[in-house]
Amino acid sequence: MSLRRFVDKIKPPFEKGGKLHMFLAGFEAIETFLFVPDKVTTGRVHIRDANDMKRSLILVMIAMVPALLFGIWNTGFHHFQALGEAAGFWQMVWFGFLKILPIFIVSYVVGLGIEIAFAQWRNEEVAEGYFVSGMLIPLVMPADVPLWMVAVATVFAVVIGKEVFGGTGMNILNPALVARAFLFFAYPSQMSGDKVWIAGLTDGTGVIDGYSGATILGQAAQNTSSFVNGLGEAYTTWDMFLGTIPGSIGETSTLAILIGAAILILTGVGSWKIIFSVFAGGAVMGVLLNLFAVNAFMALPFWEHLLLGGFAFGAVYMATDPVTAAQTERGKWIYGFLIGFLAILIRVLNPAYPEGVMLAILLMNVFAPLIDHYIIEANIKKRLKRAKVIAT
Asked: How many Cβ atoms sit within 10 Å of the Cβ of residue 242?
């Protein structure tokens, strides 16, 4: 029996009037994950397009795969380096896989469980939006984050960040960033410092004496001009670009993230205007800080700011969220530029928070509707003015 026929056979009890109707939302979530929905729009005029929400979300998930794969290897690489043990490529990958897999499982089980519960309560279908959020949340977490914190942050992100606004497509803030912000402010000791970024460094068992897992941004916040790894070896610009540095699971490799950006832009899913303008805004702020540098952090070359922390990850995967970003074409330029500009400004001028891209994106999520409003109003005034000229 084919899978399609099997699904059709067990479907009737879940439909209206059936004994299992209370689980319809969960059943439809699984069915639409496996197959294209068989429902066809009828009645009013509408546009048919092969690129529906499910395909767009799948493309976003594919675009995140390079960052995920590198994050898996990087987790194993830093773990064995902290232990002072030599390990092969696949040994690092296997360790990273086993370390990251539970974070993904918790994210998806908790997040989808809440999504299905809300869909059932509202008598709606389960939207596919959480498949992307469920992947983003683990990628912006430290490797050593406790699983219960992932669960709590996921609950907060889905309920407060999305469902209270009406669910997928109605939220104002990016849910994954809401989860990250919640953990940062609720449990700062578990989301910052020198030990949380490297798996196994928190408990310190078997770690080389004096080994530090400080990120480059953490070192820069101390106004030092030289950045070293846990062994005291200097980091190079290539290390920053390739991503062989401590950091959140999916945020360290600018190279992998740019591969994802190419996938998003070539498939038309991500806005190249937003991505480009975020980097442009960050570069402009970096140059301005270089001109007035009064300490080592302000003197950090502007291009290195674009390679560090979650800047590239935020520009490619967070700022381009079509639900929370600006929608007008000119508004996308303004929205992206201000994210990059503010991210570096917060990073450098706030010593308590060297990673500023999260707050910059959340802030601009709030202002995105206002940007679109003034862009549309300006267009209306421009056309009215043109109409008056023609009339006279």
From this structure: 17
Q: Which helix (H) or strand (E) holds 70?
A: helix 53-83
Q: What are phi and psi of 234, to 5 degrees?
A: -70, 140
Residue 205 has a CB neighbour count (10 Å cut-off) of 8
Angle between helix 130-139 and 175-186 (nearest 10)? 40
| Cα Dmax for the chain | 84
Amino acid at 133: S
- Look up the pTM and report it: 0.87
Residues contacting residue 141 through CB under 8 Å, at least 6 positions apart: 103, 150, 180, 183, 248, 249
Cα–Cα distance measured from residue 318 to residue 325, given in angstroms and rounded to the nearest whole number: 9
Summarize the confidence of residues 270-297 as an average pLDDT.
Answer: 93
For 238, residues 6+ apart whose C-beta sits below 8 A from its C-beta are none
Query: Could you report the per-residue pLDDT of 109-136, keeping only the tens digit for each?
Result: 999 888 888 888 877 777 777 888 889 9
- In this predicted structure, the answer to whether residue 232 has a pLDDT above a threshold of 70 is yes
